Amino acid sequence: MKLSNKWQKAKKARLHILLLYEETSNIKKLEIELFDSLVGRLRQNQKHDMNNLMFDMPTVLFFLFFGNFISAILLAIYPIDAISRYPYTKILAGKLLQSVAWILLAARGSIPDVYSAHVGNSLLLGGLALEAAAIISANRANERKSWDFFYAIIVGIFIFVFAVFARKANQYVYISSWFAALIYLSAVVWLLSDTKKSVLKYAMGAVYAFLGLFLIARGADAYYETSFSLMGHNFIQDIVFLLTYSLMILSVASFLLLMRKRVNQSLIEANLKLDKLAYTDSLTGLANRRWFSEYLTFSIREHRRRAEPVTLIMIDIDYFKKYNDFYGHILGDQCLTKVAQELKEHFQRNTDLVARYGGEEFTIILWNTDDDQLRSITKAIHHKIKNLAIPHLDSDVSDIITISLGAFSAVPTSDEHDLNMYIAESDCLLYEAKRAGRNRSVHTNEMPPNKACT
Q: What proportion of the chain, given as a percentage, has pLDDT over 90?
């Protein structure tokens, strides 16, 4: 009896364990089902959220309109005095045309295709061409007419081709894409051909190149895929619009920076011209007295360091006052100009300086020239002036223009060898040449001891 009771208890315990096991298994199955259900819902929610984050194409096109319109406003309020009016007008017009074009393209399906596709794409391509031409004009103003003509032809051909051949949505895409690529890649050619490279130009060139290549790929995709349209999402099309956004931001900033660089370069060139005017004789184009004085001071200092001779030649046109009185001041100015140009052509070393000292007097500064070389030089000067054969019937020494020279050469060894000393010595030698009858040269060692300048 006791054994039977124990057996019954063991049987009940076994049954209870089996029931617990079965219940535990059911709970696990329920947990797995709940987990799978939760994961599925999360995946659905994630997919739904991603779809919500993806903008529809009209919104993308509206943002392009908004960005170009804001760019046009910023350009309109930019101080025009700081930049050239011609490229400024082109990029402003280009941004306005693009703004109108993107609005028309965003209305695809809501308005007739003749406005959305034909007018919209024509305005867009015209705006891109104006923008590219403006950026080129900002840095290469001398080539603007040729580029303007090139882009005008491209836009004209596009309008004709689009009007004749574009009838379907995919045709709208590939025709406009290929012509836009032509504009962008032509800008890349300009950037690569420009000798003055910069980080800004490399960045612009990269964006232009990538956008041009992706536009070609987009056009090819639209050509082979008849269902391709502007409003559809596609990897290549998304990349094209991403690069278009980048270029929209970069183009205005690049244009203004290039124009600032051009203005700065113009200021540098203007300052150089002013400096040249300040140091140049307006009649003869030679160095003026200011330049002569500064250069002679520098030459004396440099040759004192080198222990080499500096030579100063002073030249005077013989009886030039009589020439002016006889022939008039107009022919007198022409005579001075001819003599000046002959002297300038004869002295071509970088260290040589020919200057107009005043009136009919000229000076020549020569570095490290010995006595033999100096005699050869002065002889050649006389010969060249005589070869000009400028008539001077009122001269007392010849019937043509002649000159007198005083040539002083010395190694500057002390502070006494300064600007004034060289001028005084050369002038003294010139005076001796004139006193001796003119039409001759007198050198440093040719002065009689009793008539030494010093």
A: 44
